[in-house]
Specification:
Blueprint lengths: L3 E5 L4 H12 L4 E5 L14 E5 L5 H8 L2 E6 L11 H8 L1 H13 L3 E5 L34 H16 L5 E7 L1 E3 L10 H7 L5 E2 L3 E6 H14 L5 E4 L2 E4 H12 L6 E2 L2 H18 L7 H6 L3 E2 L4 H7 L6 H14 L7
Parallel strand pairs: 1-2, 1-4, 2-3, 4-5, 5-6, 6-10, 7-9, 8-12, 9-13
Antiparallel strand pairs: 9-11
Helix pairs in contact: 1-7, 2-4, 3-5, 4-5, 6-8, 8-12
Length: 338
């Protein structure tokens, strides 16, 4: 689809890689950045215009989005933490509403909304989302029991996207799984690779997840903009792996010994309790808290067949995603090669 491509969340793992891929294809990009954003991922790219704004400020959105035909909404608060629900809703739900309604008002043709597989049902009572029965786009969300504001608000934003979709604005929803690859500036999901490479991951939890190369995600997003069916969800994932298996793959790539034993769940929950306590006292978001500790023992698996069929979603080996992320972390000073 021709025209200017507007990208929110342009400095994050998804947005940064998306902007880079769009620019590499010769497409004109306008990247929304906040005043405090680290723009390393998109600096110096031909055809990319950085504009200051915030999805929670509709006036800044209207100024930034004017004249854009295609909108990719990647921005979100992704903290797996006990953030006050009104704060999380302000960004993930009301921010999304601002993007959708501004796109409609300004005459944009299409929006690709980046949701998450956490907005689809998993670990359901009837077994959906397990290694034996990976979840699909048809499994209804039923994850209130996890009490994770991120999941709740991303599900609400997804429902809003589907409700807003119509003849005057076409919205396609993509639901990425656990993404690995380069330009993870923060770092976010790549923190797992750093921890293994630094010898910090001595054991593993007994849950499972779905893992995908970030390049496969952004390629499918661009295809979704061009060819995805409006009002549809597309799971963007690849390989379902236990945490033991993914840690072993990471260890093999980075050249360290893999974790050898499973952490008993009660031990992880105790560590999560103290992590939460530390976070509440310090005012920071701890890497391990009672929410993430519990999630480490849940199978979180999905079937990307629909996206493979309709969007041509690639299946780059997870080992390649790990290698590309690891190399990027070394080249940019996050790690030293063994």
């Amino acid at each position: 689809m021709s025209g200017v491509n507007f990208v929110t969340g342009a400095t994050g793992l998804v947005g940064g890689n998306l902007v880079r891929e769009l620019a590499a294809r010769g497409r004109q990009v306008r990247a929304l950045v906040r005043k405090t954003s680290n723009t390393m991922a998109i600096d110096g790219l031909d055809g990319v215009e950085k504009v200051e704004g915030d999805i929670t400020d509709r006036a800044s959105l209207e100024r930034a989005m004017a004249g854009c035909e295609c909108v990719y909404h990647c921005a979100a608060d992704v903290r797996m933490w006990i953030v006050p629900m009104d704060e999380m809703r302000r960004i993930n739900v009301e921010g999304a509403r601002n993007v959708f309604e501004t796109a409609k008002k300004l005459g944009a043709r299409r929006v690709v909304h980046v949701s998450t597989v956490d907005a689809i049902g998993f670990a359901t009572p009837d077994g959906w989302g397990s290694l034996a029965k990976p979840g699909t786009e048809e499994v209804p969300w039923q994850n209130d029991r996890f009490a994770i504001p991120y999941m709740t608000t991303k599900c609400e934003a997804q429902r809003l996207a589907l409700a807003t979709n119509g003849p005057d604005i076409e919205i396609v929803v993509v639901n990425p799984t656990f993404m690995l690859g380069p330009w993870d500036v923060k770092p976010s999901s790549g923190a797992m690779i750093i921890e293994v490479a630094q010898g910090m991951a001595k054991a593993y939890s007994t849950g499972a997840n779905n893992f995908i190369h970030i390049k496969d995600v952004v390629d499918a997003m661009i295809t979704a903009m061009d060819k995805g069916r409006q009002g549809e969800l597309y799971i963007l994932g690849n390989e379902n792996l236990s945490y033991r298996d993914i840690f072993t793959k990471i260890a093999n790539v980075v050249g360290v010994a893999p974790p050898k034993f499973a952490i008993p769940k009660f031990v992880a929950l105790v560590a999560g309790f103290f992590g939460t306590l530390y976070g509440q006292v310090s005012g920071t978001t701890p890497n391990i808290n009672h929410l993430t500790a519990n999630m480490g023992y849940i199978e979180h698996c999905f079937d990307p067949s629909k996206a493979r069929k309709e969007l041509g979603l690639a299946a780059t080996p997870v080992e390649q995603a790990i290698e590309d992320a690891y190399r990027w972390f070394i080249e940019h000073g996050y790690l030293k090669r063994k």
